[in-house]
Specification:
Elements lengths: L2 H10 L4 H14 L10 E5 L5 H9 L8 E3 L6 E6 L4 E7 L8 H8 L5 H20 L2 H4 E6 L12 E3 L6 E3 L4 E3 L2 E3 L1 H8 L1
């Protein structure tokens, strides 16, 4: 296991197929774009899965810096935009890595695996992870250059204090009701 994969696993909390998928995507991207120190590299992730943690760990694209954008379509698709190079690539993880696992994955999610099925499931997971980590890029990834507008840079807005709960919130996300300036949560409680 490569050191950067171990670091991604440490960041994520465990090793799993999703993390391995994101790792392969991130390794490919690192060959074309440098790690983002600030917002030079932007990732538009079309999923909210384990794979995104590998992207954060290896490429420095994070929600906190504003260079990780979620457009959750439930797809293992990532678009990376380089501000330095003014170009973007879209990567679709095309490998059929979960072949033969769907029924077991659903039973595992429902907590209904027998002891024998648990062993089979763990063996299949290990095989899937190994297939992802050792596979060829051309077998796993569909990559194409795309023309997209530069994503907006992260914005910092003033903070306001909610006149209902007293908690601070970002001004742009405030609401007004009953003559008070409210956070979204308090506004939702008043409207309901």
């Amino acid at each position: 296991m490569e050191e950067d994969f171990k670091e991604a696993a440490k960041f994520h909390g465990h090793v799993c197929p999703g993390l391995a998928m994101g790792y392969r995507v991130a390794k490919y991207v690192k060959e074309h774009y440098p790690r983002s120190k600030d917002e030079e590299l932007v990732c538009i992730a079309e999923n909210k899965s384990c794979s995104v943690d590998a992207v954060q760990s290896l490429l420095g694209c994070t929600a906190g810096k504003g260079n990780l954008i979620f457009v959750d379509n439930g797809k293992q698709v990532f678009t990376f935009y380089s501000r330095d190079q003014d170009r973007a690539m879209r990567i679709y993880f095309k490998g059929d890595v979960f072949r033969g696992m769907d029924a077991l994955r659903q039973k595992a999610a429902a907590g209904r695996l027998t002891q024998e099925e648990k062993k089979e499931f763990e063996n299949l997971r290990s095989r899937v992870i190994e297939d992802i980590l050792s596979g060829k890029d051309e077998d796993l990834l569909f990559v194409k250059e795309v023309d997209i507008p530069a994503p907006e840079k992260a914005k910092i807005y003033p903070s306001l204090k909610c006149q209902e709960c007293g908690e601070g919130f970002m001004e742009i996300l405030g609401r007004t009701a009953g003559g008070k300036v409210l956070c979204k949560e308090c506004f939702g409680k008043m409207v309901c």
